[in-house]
Amino acid sequence: MLENQVQPFNFSTPDGESLYAWHVLPLAKYTANEKTLLDDPTGPAAHFTETAAFALLSKDPSSRLVINFHGNAGTVAQGWRTDTYRALSSGAPDKIHVLAFDYRGFGYSTGSPDEQGLIADGVAAVHWAMNVARIPPERIVLVGQSLGTVVAAAVAENFVRVSQTEFAGIVLIASFSDMPTLLLTYSTSGLIPILSPLKPYPALQRWFLRYVRETWKTSPRIASLVRNSKKVNLHLIHAKNDFDISWKHSESLFYTAANATTASGMSLKQIDGAKLHQDLGESGWMDSWNADGSKKISKHIVRYGGN
Question: Residue 170: beta bridge partners?
Fold first, then answer.
């Protein structure tokens, strides 16, 4: 990242936590305004809304904002995540800004993490984008990776259910159905299994799963999101060689989302018969579901990419 292309700042949650965030400027926008941006001091901004970077985001009617919900490891500055931010804005390097933030208990953010707390953090990030930066939801895309997919799905479901707020898109990368189901197949770095060695003993697996305090249920949240939405635009992306979280989870979520577009429900066989399937060769394959032209759901399984 270039000097002052990233503007660190903090925003608050309704329950009093302070969350550390990055506003990442798109490269072409940064280049065109480099001199003005370099006049601002480096480091966390005490008054972010007074910076040149904020003006470029909030006062440009063509600006787009991707809100990034990261996974359970590390912080906004974790090694590969800066590459992710570049990739997210590369589609329109003069328009797509990125808001990345650390959940409570991560990095410089205050508090202790738990499921409801992380969802509250995500809701606060969206409220900041819409109410402070004044970016309308039709110019906002939510992108979640791994654990962040649960948060992004819950945030999208909350907004559509509570206020019928619809976002331009929701992208879930390496998602999972729920924590108990994930633990049955999850392996750390693809090498150290958690509960799969107990597969011959289902009663013992169930006994362990009784002690999972936070279930992180993505599947019912996606069903509620699709059911309550009028124009959901949901994309699931997963790598076939993801040895931590099986791509079958995204497969299951695709069926859940497609099924939620119907009043009476459909069998897997019926969905398979009606979906659009595209073989992309070495790039994997894609399934698409378009309900009445208004609810769009897609699943892209790439052959390589890991978690």
Answer: 142, 234
Tokens read off for 301? 């399984």
CA separation for the pair 59, 297 (Å, rounded): 32
Q: What is the pLDDT of residues 135-185, one digit of tens each?
A: 999 999 999 999 999 999 999 999 999 999 999 999 999 999 987 777 666
In angstroms, the CA 94 to CA 60 distance is 11
Within a 13 Å sphere around the CA of 246, how many CA atoms are in the beta-carbon half?
Answer: 16
Tell me what pLDDT residue 73 has. Answer: 80
Is the four-CA dihedral 135, 136, 141, 147 of positive or negative sign? Answer: positive
Give me the helices (H) in 235-304, please. Answer: 248-259, 268-274
Backbone angles phi, psi at 72, to 5 degrees: -85, -10
> Count of H helices and E strands in the chain?
11, 12
Question: What contacts 116, CB < 8 A, 6 or more positions away?
Answer: none
Q: In what order do the strands lie in the sheet with 233-239?
A: 6-12, 18-24, 96-101, 64-69, 140-145, 169-173, 233-239, 295-302, 285-291, 276-279
Conformational region of residue 20, where left means phi above 0, alpha means psi within -120 to 50, and beta covers everything else: beta
The answer to whether the CB of 98 falls within 8 A of the CB of 68 is: yes
pLDDT beneath 50, residues of the chain:
195, 201
HSE of 12, CA atoms in CB hemisphere, 13 A:
4
Residue 296 three-state SS: strand
- Residue 299 sits at φ, ψ, to 5 deg, of -135, 120
Six token digits for residue 31: 């280049």
DSSP state of 25: -
Share of residues in the chain with pLDDT > 90 (%): 77
Q: What is the pLDDT of residue 190?
A: 56
Asked whether the whole model's pTM tops 0.85, one would answer yes
